[in-house]
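Regression test case RT-17, inverse folding.

Input:
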């Protein structure tokens, strides 16, 4: 599917990810979670891992953002062209790629991955997962179709804010002309609305919609912290 980014304007994107060792870490389960999110109004879905991309692509009729996390430190979100090509081959309409300037395992650059992916899959779009304003501006110049604030607070460039990094969102929206998707620690509907009011193209929510253990933990802490003795 060739994605018209206008279809995501003013809409919610939902990230459906379960982590290694978790009970929901199963491609069929993630595809079902994705289907449920679409019923609720998600205009696009973001999934991690080749099997999850393949399984989710089978059942979705909204754009699919795919990524491949390899490792847990440094550049681990779709770190090389090999990973990006595999995401596209598995059915991702948009491939999310780490767009920070940190060294990649094979010494390649974001610009080289974008060029290599587009040479092979001209219709596939690139979402740049950025951690700073500089990343966003560079990624746009290097051919990213969507600018994401995904790595704000995770790449070492910015403090990890409680909730989304609204300051970065404001600066990126002002500086970039490509659609900006604000992603990362959007945990409440109020935060999602605040991000959109800044002028974001879309907001991407993961944990607060699709990670039951974390959501349960929030409620459990509130209940236990408020219980009368
Ligand atoms: C930093 C990193 O690796 N972020 C990942 C990117 O795909 C996911 O673990 C996040 O869940 C996703 O970005 C959505 O964010 P949140 O779950 O905070 O709504």
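Golden output:
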């Amino acid at each position: 599917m060739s994605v018209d980014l206008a279809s995501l304007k003013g809409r919610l994107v939902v990230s459906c990810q379960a982590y290694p060792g978790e009970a929901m870490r199963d491609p069929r389960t993630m595809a079902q979670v994705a289907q449920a999110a679409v019923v609720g109004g998600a205009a696009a879905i973001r999934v991690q891992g080749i099997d999850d991309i393949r399984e989710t692509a089978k059942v979705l009729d909204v754009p699919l953002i795919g990524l491949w996390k390899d490792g847990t430190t440094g550049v681990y979100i779709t770190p090389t062209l090999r990973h990006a090509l595999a995401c596209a081959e598995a059915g991702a309409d948009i491939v999310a790629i780490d767009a920070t300037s940190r060294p990649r395992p094979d010494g390649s650059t974001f610009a080289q991955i974008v060029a290599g992916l587009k040479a092979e899959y001209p219709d596939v779009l690139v979402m740049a997962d950025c951690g700073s304003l500089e990343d966003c501006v560079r990624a746009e110049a290097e051919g990213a179709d969507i600018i994401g604030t995904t790595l704000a607070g995770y790449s070492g460039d910015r403090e990890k804010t409680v909730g989304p990094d609204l300051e970065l969102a404001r600066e990126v929206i002002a500086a970039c002309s490509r659609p900006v998707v604000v992603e990362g620690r959007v945990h409440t509907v109020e935060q999602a609305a605040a991000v959109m009011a800044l002028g974001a193209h879309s907001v991407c929510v993961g944990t607060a919609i699709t990670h039951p253990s974390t959501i349960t933990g929030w409620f459990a802490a509130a209940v236990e912290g408020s219980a009368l003795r």
